[in-house]
Write a structure and sequence with these properties.
5-stranded mixed beta sheet; CbiD-like
């Protein structure tokens, strides 16, 4: 049986299931830093170290793959993401500690830790992708440990993650311009399962980065279907776009607060049709109503009760749109839906930015555009042309 780490009793209920908390790569690195610095000075191996996280949860983390010489010491802590579906779960986060003549602690990333190449993130371009809170945690543990041993000289700390470059391909890092590995992350030191906050934060970071690069009008897609349609069926084929997942409302909120001037959503009907009823989180656990919305649009367009009942019994939006089309109401029903989508996008953003949407179906192609979509498309393209001119 694995030794207790201190996280075992922390759980949360998600969808009627009890799910375990975990700890971040930042906590792993901070614990490994304490371990490696301690072993450098003591020249004796340690089995585990204690770490107080910013969340207020104390961890007791085992150290593995310990290596000690007179000049340096290194060890690793294994990441435990709890029940969160995290691509970094189970990885080893290493820290190597070395003495240096000059006072102070120098912290850098080694193999498997990404390096920032673009502005707009919390870490400056050229630096290792170790976010501010983990960086502070790592430095604090090293400083406290050095103080305990009465050491006043300098230290060099290197964080590395074997296999980190490959793991990073499954994360947002390539989109953010972080190359060569993963980021060392975590604002609380603790991973809460299925954290919506973490997903929304990743959207905010990507939006902030584009805004810092001068983008004032953004193309936003819920997921891969939206990006594929944007790339293959619109004039925006080569523009940078943001994935917002189900968080249409939160994306608009962040755009308004950030000073973005316009947002164009390009999405499949399975997602965007929900916004015609003011549903701004399109995850099925939050709300569905797709068939009710499509049925109401068909009824308003002139469909009879029999057709509306058939639409209500559909299981996919593609099937429902096919029935609407078979009755001859596709164009008018889609126009009604786009008007409603425009209304609710404007309502959510308090009319403070230009909003619009393009809705499509994988089966039926382009379904409709809001009245502002073409204008937003031109703004986004003009912005892209300006980028090319600067290059």
């Amino acid at each position: 049986m694995d030794a207790p780490t201190g996280i075992e009793n922390y759980t949360v209920i998600r969808n009627n299931r009890t799910m375990r908390f975990g700890y971040t790569t930042g906590s792993c690195a901070a614990a490994a830093a304490r371990g490696s610095v301690s072993m450098l000075f003591s020249q004796k191996p340690l089995e585990a170290v204690d770490l107080m996280t910013p969340k207020g949860i104390r961890l007791h983390l085992p150290l593995v793959d310990i290596r000690i010489t007179s000049d340096e010491a290194s060890c690793a802590v294994r990441k435990d993401a709890g029940d969160d579906p995290d691509s970094t779960d189970g990885i080893l986060v290493y820290v190597t500690a070395r003495r240096r003549e000059k006072a102070g602690i120098v912290l850098d990333g080694g193999a498997g830790v990404g390096r920032v190449t673009k502005p707009g993130l919390a870490v400056l371009p050229g630096c290792a992708a170790i976010n501010p809170v983990p960086r502070a945690m790592i430095l604090k543990e090293a400083e406290d440990c050095a103080s305990e041993y009465g050491y006043e000289g300098g230290l060099s700390l290197t964080v590395s993650v074997p296999g980190g470059e490959e793991i990073a391909k499954k994360t947002f890092n390539p989109r953010l311009g972080i190359v060569g590995g993963i980021s060392i992350l975590g604002t609380s030191g603790i991973v809460e399962p299925m954290s919506e906050h973490a997903l929304v934060e990743s959207i905010r970071i990507e939006m902030q980065q584009l805004h810092s690069e001068g983008y004032e009008y953004l193309a936003v897609v819920p997921g891969n279907y939206g990006e594929a349609f944007l790339r293959g069926s619109t004039k925006l084929g080569n523009v940078k776009c943001i994935h917002c997942s189900n968080y249409i409302g939160e994306t608009l909120d962040m755009a308004v607060n950030m000073g973005i001037k316009g947002v164009l959503f390009v999405g499949h009907a399975g997602k965007l049709v929900k916004t015609a009823a003011g549903i701004m989180n399109t995850h099925s656990r939050e709300a569905d109503g797709r068939m009710e919305i499509l049925s109401a649009a068909a009824l308003t367009a002139g469909a009879d009760n029999m057709l509306c009942r058939r639409i209500l019994n559909c299981t996919t939006t593609d099937d429902a749109i096919g029935m609407i089309a078979s009755g001859g109401f596709r164009e008018s029903a889609m126009q009604l839906l786009m008007e409603k989508i425009q209304f609710y996008l404007d309502h959510r953003s308090y009319d403070r930015i230009l909003t619009g949407a393009v809705m499509f179906s994988n089966v039926h192609g382009l379904l409709g555009k809001t009245k502002t979509a073409d204008e937003l498309e031109k703004m986004i393209l003009a912005q892209k042309t300006a980028d090319q001119t600067e290059e």
